[in-house]
Each structure stands twice: as C-alpha cells, then as structure tokens.
Amino acid sequence: MEKALILMGCAIGAGLALIAGIGPGIGEGYAVGKTCEAIGRQPEAKSDLTSTMLLGCAIAETTGIYGFVTGLLLIFVAPGIFLGML
Amino acid sequence: MEINIQGAPILFTIPVLGGIPITSTLVVTWVIMLLLTGLSIFLTRNLKVKNISKRQAIAEYLVSTAENFVHGNMGEKWDRYVPLISALFALSIVSSLSSLVGVFAPTADLNTELSWAVLVFVLITYTKIKTGGVLGYAKGFTEPIFVLTPFNIISELATPISMAFRHFGNIVSGYVISTLIYAALAAANRALFSLLPGAVGWVLSQIPLLDVGIPAILSLYFDWFSSFMQAFIFSMLTMMYIASAAESD
C-alpha cells in the first residue's frame, strides 16, 4: 500500500512538473513572433536578429528544462530513494 | 515490451580507492578528444604561405570562423579566448552527435556539462577578480544594497547550474523521446501486422518495418539541430558571461 502510494505520488509529481513546459512555449512563441515582425521591418538585419532570438529562446527554455529534469528525477531517482527509506 | 532508459553504463572498475567506476562517458569523451586533437594535427601539418593545400584551406576557414565568432560577440581584445571557445564548441557538438553512431552520448550525462560549467564559473570568477580586485569582487555581492547579498550569491551559483542543466536537459530529452518513439513504433508495427492472418502476419509483425524512416525525421531535429544549437548556446553564453564579468567597472 505504501509502495503504491509512493509510486503514485512520484508519477503524479512528474506529470505536474511538466506543466512547466507551458511558460517557455508561450514565451518562445512570443519571441519568435516578434523576431518575424522585426525581420519583416528590417530584412537586412536577419542574421543578427536570428542569433539573438535563438539565444533568447534558449534562456527562456531554462524553466521548462528545470521542470523536465525534475520530472526525470521523480521517475528514475525518487522512487528508489523513497522505497529504500521504507 | 522492453523500454530501456538509463544513465551512462559502467564499462569497468579500477580497483583502487575502493573502486573507481569508468563509465562510457569517460571513454567516449577521451576518444572524442583524441579524434579532435588528431584532426587538428592532421589539418595543420605542412602549413605554407603560398599555394596552400585543400587541407590548409579547411584549417584556415575553421580558424577564421572561430575568430570571427569570438570577435563578434566579445570584441577584439579577447583573442586568447578563441581556443577555449572553439574547443568547447567542438567538444560539445561532437559529443552530442556521437549518439548517431550508437554510443552513449557524453552530453547525455550531467557530469560532462557540470564540469564544463564549473570551468566557465571559475573563468568568470577569475575575470571578475582580475578586473575589480578581491575587494571589488566581494563588494559586488552587496550591490545595490546590503540586504540583497544572499540573493546575489544564489544568482551567482545559479549561472553554472542553469548552463549545465540547459545543455543536459536538451540532449537527454531528445534521447528519451527518440527511445520512446522507437518503442512505440515497434509496438504499433506489431499490433498492425498481427491483424494479417497466418504466417505472413506473424513474420511481418516481428520485423519493425515502421522503425525505418520515420525516426530519421525526428533525429534531424533532436540530434542535428539540438546538438548544434546547444553547442552554439553554451559557447555563446560562456563568451557573454566572461565579457560582462570584465565590464563591471
């Protein structure tokens, strides 16, 4: 029973951790949209804009990656630790 | 159905100090470093001023690209960081792409990225101390007011951690997703072809026909684009952090 509860908690937690993907999705979409506008206005600055946008996207992605790593830990590491504590 | 997602496999253990495990990360990283060193030595043999060979042309192209990359992002006075940045970039991209030949990519192991990030952190701290002196470095933590010191320390430590986890997360998510897709396509293949009657259906359901072609399209994003992107971002962030560490008055 306790094992089942622990596994359930870890699985639910991993699912909840991936909610963190929403934020970066919205943010990156916004950044790319703005970059498209900027390229439309100034096509000659395309290469500069693109590299700046990619860097910004990578930084915006950080919180999503934290969520993903938390999910990985909850699936692969946490059950072992918590079951070992029983 | 067997889905096998795991960390770097331990190849053998050195029996000193209670056993030092040698993972495939270490071995593959050393092989990649030897390959890159060998390639550099091969490309830079017999350099000439006139009538250059194709090999020298490639070497000159690579070096001038790396120099332009660093100069464009840090400025001309950072010439001595060109070897470091290009080495980080080359090591990162070849490590990530090594998953294409079937070995465990060293960048899918957090230890690799953490060691790179610690190296970058040491460089940032060194540059800060060199610019402002030890007192100036210590004083930088109390800006703008004294109360914010703990937060400044946290944000200083968050730099290497977020750099390492960003690279690691991107490569590992590609690895996990492609493993899941291979398994799902094999299962779908088995379900689809076992609908066929008799021996033909059994034979076809044992061969993972759907695994041909479809994962290649995803590998284009997860392996090629993601590897290149993360190498670019890691070296770019290294340059920006070091350059901004020198700027702080």
Explain what you see.
The complex is a heterodimer of chains A (86) and B (249). Chain A is built from five helices and no strands. Chain A has helices at 2-17, 22-41, 46-60, 62-76, 78-85. Chain A starts with a helix and ends with a helix. Chain A is rod-shaped and about 65 Å long. Chain B has one domain. Chain B is 70% helix and 4% strand. Chain B is built from seven helices and two strands; from the N terminus they run ββααααααα. Chain B has a two-stranded antiparallel ribbon. At the A-B interface, helix 3 and helix 4 of A face helix 5 and helix 7 of B.
Sum this structure up briefly.
The complex is a heterodimer of chains A (86) and B (249). Chain A has helices at residues 2-17, 22-41, 46-60, 62-76, 78-85.
The residue fraction in helices of chain A comes out at over 70%
Q: Describe the biggest sheet of chain A? A: none
C-alpha-based Rg of chain B, rounded: 24 Å
The share of residues in extended strands of chain B comes to under 5%
Descriptive keywords:
heterodimer; A: 86 residues; mainly alpha; 5 helices; 0% strand; B: 249 residues; two-stranded antiparallel sheet; 7 helices; 2 strands
Break the fold down into its secondary structure elements and pairings:
The complex is a heterodimer of chains A (86) and B (249).
Chain A: H1 2-17, H2 22-41, H3 46-60, H4 62-76, H5 78-85
Helix pairs in contact in A: 1-4, 1-5, 2-3
Chain B: E1 10-14, E2 20-23, H1 24-43, H2 54-74, H3 82-97, H4 110-139, H5 149-193, H6 198-206, H7 214-247
Antiparallel strand pairs in B: 1-2
Helix pairs in contact in B: 1-3, 3-7, 4-5, 4-7, 5-6, 5-7
